[in-house]
């Protein structure tokens, strides 16, 4: 898997931005695995399924009708669930919270595993999430784990919300970020943690360009070593 780059890390660390820039730079495809968990949570919610009903959860995971579409000339990805554009609802804090809860369930993770692995392309893939480097693409050649202080991540999230004209309360966002990290890191199934062979980058004091430079150096260095 010498053309897979995994980018894992806690919520609000900027994985999505770095993954998008890297995919553009390398000309590789992009997998936002969080979007799959978020869409799955929305589907379960819409169907009114009890999250203790593992059989029903498995069935939804296997039949999830999900499509990602990128507008030509735009970097925005729209997400469609059963043909309906769910892009806006997908990104809310509430959906993130639901996704984090449902993502802790073992049968959900195994049912969604192959769907994520199918994104691997001969032409290359950048995959971002929580367990891309440890589980889904454990054989990937390039692995990055991004971190940043909870305060910094909450501030980034607040700016993101403000850019979308959404009101956010800093203390609430910070509490949500901390609670979500705690749940994602302490779960039994594929917890959030760096792969042993991941490059760990603390982005608290770094700009997007500085992080991209470090990730690019990782890919270029090993390509020149093997080439
Ligand atoms: O990256 P995100 O905020 O869109 O992810 C939403 C939730 O989905 C996250 O809190 C935990 C879960 N998730 C996961 O368990 N494994 C992944 N690979 C991606 C996301």
From TrEMBL:
Biological process according to GO: nucleobase-containing small molecule interconversion; pyrimidine nucleotide metabolic process
Keywords: ATP-binding, Cytoplasm, Kinase, Nucleotide-binding, Transferase
Entry similarity comment: Belongs to the cytidylate kinase family. Type 1 subfamily.
Location in or out of the cell: Cytoplasm
Gene Ontology molecular function: ATP binding; dCMP kinase activity
Chief site of localization: cytoplasm
Name of the protein described by the UniProt record: Cytidylate kinase
Domain of life: Bacteria
Positions that bind ATP: 9-17
The reaction(s) this protein catalyses: dCMP + ATP = dCDP + ADP; CMP + ATP = CDP + ADP
Family matches, as SUPFAM superfamilies: P-loop containing nucleoside triphosphate hydrolases
GO cellular component assignments: cytosol
EC identifiers of the protein: 2.7.4.25
Pfam families xrefs: Cytidylate_kin
InterPro entries: Cytidylate_kin, Cytidylate_kinase_dom, P-loop_NTPase
Cytidylate kinase domain location: 6-219
Gene coding for it: cmk
Top EC class, one word: transferase
